[in-house]
C-alpha cells in the first residue's frame, strides 16, 4: 500500500469521491458535507491498485493542558478502511505512517474520539483520564460525556502523559459540529 498526504483543497474530484464513498460506507456521512473546518483538513490515504482503500484526516487544534500548557494537536477523524480490505492491517499501517508524519511536522499530540479503543490502544494510543473542557466565547464547560485518546508525539508529551492524575485537564476551543 502506498501512502499519500493531501490537503483537502488539493484533492482531485476522483479522490474526493473515493474518500466520500469510504466515509459514507463507514460513518453514514462524508467529511465535506458536514462542517466548514473540514475544508482545511489534511488527508492521509492508503492506495492500492490506484484505489483509496484506507483513509484518515486531521485538523489542527490547540489543547491547553492543565490550564497553562498549549499543545499543537492533530485531531484525527474519519479513520476507515474499505470493508472488502479489512482485517489486513491497512488501517494500522496508515495510522503508524500518520504518527511518523505528524511527529515530523512537530505536533505535540495526536488525538481522536475512538469507536474501538482496543484497536487504538494496540497502536500505542492512550485513553485520557482527566477532565475535558471546551471553551466557547467567554464560557468554559466540562464535557466529561466524551472520551478521547491521545498519542504523544514528543518526549515531553510522553513524560507529561505518564503522570496520571484525575486532576489533569484538557481544554480546547469549541468547533462547529462534534465537540470532540
Structural account:
The chain has 180 residues and is an alpha+beta fold. It has a single domain, classed as Aminopeptidase, CATH 3.40.630.30. It contains five helices and ten strands. Strands 1, 2, 3, 4, 5, 6, 7, 8, 9 and 10 form a ten-stranded mixed β-sheet that branches. A hairpin with a 2-residue loop joins strand 7 and strand 8 (139-142).
Brief characterization of the structure:
This protein has 180 residues and is α+β, with helices and mostly antiparallel strands. 26% of the residues lie in helices and 37% in strands.
Keywords for this structure?
180 residues; 5 helices; globular; ten-stranded mixed beta sheet; alpha+beta; 37% strand; Aminopeptidase
Largest sheet: 10 strands, mixed
Mass-distribution shape: globular
What would CATH call the homologous superfamily? Gcn5-related N-acetyltransferase (GNAT)
Structural class by sheet pairing and helices: alpha+beta
Instruction: From the 3D structure, determine the CATH topology.
Output: Aminopeptidase
Helix content: 25-40%
Classified by CATH, the class is Alpha Beta
What is the distance, rounded to the nearest whole angstrom, between the alpha carbons of the first and last residues? 30 Å
Q: What is the mean pLDDT?
A: 92
| SSE pattern | EHHEEEHEHEEEEHE
Q: DSSP strand (E) fraction?
A: 35-45%
Strands, total number: 10
